Amino acid sequence: MKFKITLLLLLVSFSILSQNITAKLIDTSTKQTIPYANIKTGAYAGVISNDEGFFTVAYKKDTKLISISCMGYENKTLTIAAIKKLNFIIELQQAINKLDEVFISTTAPNANTIIAKVKAKIVDNYNLDLQYYNVFKRSKYNADFKNLEFEIDKASDVKKKQLEGVNSSLHTLVNHVKNSNMVQFVDFKGAVYILNKDSIKLKIEKATELLDHKNDFSIDNIQEKMQNIILKYLDTTKTYKLKTGLFKIEDSLALNDDDFKDNVKNEFTVSYLNDETKYILNRAQFYENSFLNKILDTDLYDYKFEDMAYNNGVLTYILTFYPRKGKAKYTGQLYIADDTYAITRVNYNYYKDRHGQKVNLRLLLGVKYIENKSKGTIIFEKDSSQRYYPKYIKSSTGNYFYVSRPLKFIENSSTKNKVSFDFTIEGENKNEFELLVTRHNTLSIADFETEIQAEKAPYIKLSKYEKSIWDNERILEPSLEMKTFDGENN
Question: Tell me, which fold does domain 2-96 have in CATH?
Answer without folding.
Answer: Immunoglobulin-like (2.60.40)
